[in-house]
Amino acid sequence: MARPSKARAASEESSALSSVVSDAPETAVADTAPKGTRGTKRKRNVKQQVKEESEGENDIEERPAPVKKTRQRKAAKVEEEVEPSPKKARKSKKVIEETQEAETTTVDAPPTKAKVVRKRKTKEEKEAEAMPLAARTVGHKLFIGAHVSAAGGPPNAVQNAIHIGANAFALFLKSQRKWANPPLDETHSINFHENCNKHDFDQNKHVVPHGSYLVNLAHTDPERTKQAYDSFLDDLKRCEKLGIALYNFHPGNSVGGDRAAAIAHLAGNLNRAHKETSKVVTLLENMAAGGNVIGSTFEDLRDVIELVEDKSRVGVCLDTCHAFAGGYDLRTPETVQKTMSDFNETVGMKYLRALHLNDSKAPFSSHRDLHANIGTGFLGLRGFHAIMNDERVIGLPMVLETPIEVRDEDGNLQKDAKGKDMEDKGIWAREIKLLENLVGMDVESEEFKEIEDRLQKMGAVERNRIAEQVEKKTTKVKEMEEKTKAKQTKLNFGKAVPAKKGKKAKKEEEADQSDASSLSALPSDNES
Ligand SMILES: [Zn+2]
Question: Between 86 and 275, whose confidence is greater?
């Protein structure tokens, strides 16, 4: 995935900076958080971290301690100024960048050691060292984050989460579009534990890796089963090495076969995988697509769970976009209540272990899986307000899988100088703050209405585009159904033979059965 130009600029800035400044500024901000339950541990960590960083391979020089102290105090002050509203968050980012620049120029102590050139930093390492786009909110009852990149290894995902002010995150544990299961790098495992510990991410609760899109545990073909199962089991083992307790995956597809058999096959695979691992909880994600896709209804999820032997090893990750597009309304407090009680009655609230927070570019019950930015889609900000204020989501990891393409206020995509779509991870940073801020906000307030209107306006272009597509497809499907009916009637008048599927129809059906996420307009590593 192409790096967002802003982030790139920031990482270049930071790499230039790192020739002068030895510690990563982002950690200073995150760890000198002023208040909250996690504050004390953080303060303690600063010391440890400073020590480690001075020994780390990226450490270039030794500098007098007083300079460092001043910088940390400054950074802490900046964090206090960070306000939750999107506009203000942007402003704060600027403040942070400016402070950073100012510091660079005021550090005038000459290096006491000759500059040592180390191995070149990767793009991810550079980006991780950049100042965070937003400071993490400390002590909030909601744990909101995003599906971040783990390019270069899982430890980088922690840095990427901090970069956007996340208190929870998702990641891929290996390439999500390849079947290869390369062994997990030992140092990655060690560094992941260390990073989570250092930055107060509870791997048992707030890190939820996402399974591969290729894996279909409901496919009953033996060869396909082996390939899917091996990849799945490998991921679960990675979780256990990384100390991660929750793992989210798409239930799969019956590929036109018997639905009950597919569900039984999936549950059988889960039972096997649970026996071959010790603790990781496998979370079924609800889906949008319908048809052969398993998990588009709460009944599907219930049926799978019913067949899982160890109920402590299974749960659900509820995707708001998938639920909404799948026919579970979430637009108002009343519909959120209704959908939640439906879930409770059918599946059971105790199985709800994580959420994916996405708005929907596609209309209600359209069965299209197209994630929109929070408040810009058909689901809308009021729905998210109701969800964020629902007691049942407190403490659960909630992960954004929203697009990070830059759009203007009218919703038009912004291109960079090379004509490429611009990307900005600051979008996640602002969405996290927005969602956190919805707790206790009055939906009748001017503040709420202003944000609601602005986001709806921003999403109008995409909503209209997709609504048109959905309508066209619905008409087409109806026409085809009528044609088939007519043909069938004609045939029945002649010989009583069942209609055979043409090559084209078969192909189309297969395309429909393939992972619904292929329809998504999201960046490649950020779907579903
Ligand atoms: Zn999802």
Answer: 275
